[in-house]
Design a protein that fits this description.
Layout: H1 3-11, E1 18-25, E2 33-37, E3 44-47, E4 64-72, E5 78-82, H2 92-99, H3 103-106
Parallel strand pairs: 3-5
Antiparallel strand pairs: 1-2, 1-4, 2-3, 4-5
Domain S1 motif: 16-83
Protein name: S1 motif domain-containing protein
InterPro entries: S1_domain (IPR003029)
Length: 125
């Protein structure tokens, strides 16, 4: 995918936009996150910080579920958030209030409308 193709694709994405996807790779359960095919020319990725602490609760390869656009930057990859609470960390609401308190206002905004990515809280646990 060229930079121009990625830029065109990014312009069509909105925070909170939902995709039905299939987990295609879990490289190191409990450590990195999961890669998700959402039917676009770029892949999706759910970061370990959004997944349950217990890796046994992570979606496995082949799991089909719904995901939301959580972040998009210059890299040709879409950061996703699981919609199904069983695939999110137990303290997700607390994490959201500390890490991304503006999420409700960002929801439905074009991903290019926000300049900087959310930063991880000092202590996630």
């Amino acid at each position: 995918m060229s930079i121009q193709e990625w830029e065109r694709a990014r312009r069509r994405l909105h925070f909170g936009q939902r995709f039905y996807g299939r987990v295609v790779q879990v490289p190191r359960p409990g450590t990195i996150g999961v890669f998700v095919d959402i039917g676009l020319v770029v892949g999706g990725f759910v970061d370990v910080l959004l997944l349950p602490e217990d890796a046994a609760r992570w979606p496995t390869v082949g799991t089909k579920s719904e995901f939301e656009v959580w972040w998009v930057d210059d890299r040709p990859q879409i950061r996703l958030k699981p919609v199904d609470p069983q695939y999110r960390r137990d303290d997700f609401t607390e994490l959201l209030s500390r890490w991304r308190p503006g999420w409700p206002q960002e929801h439905a905004l074009p991903v290019l409308a926000i300049d900087s990515p959310p930063t991880a809280p000092d202590a996630v646990g």
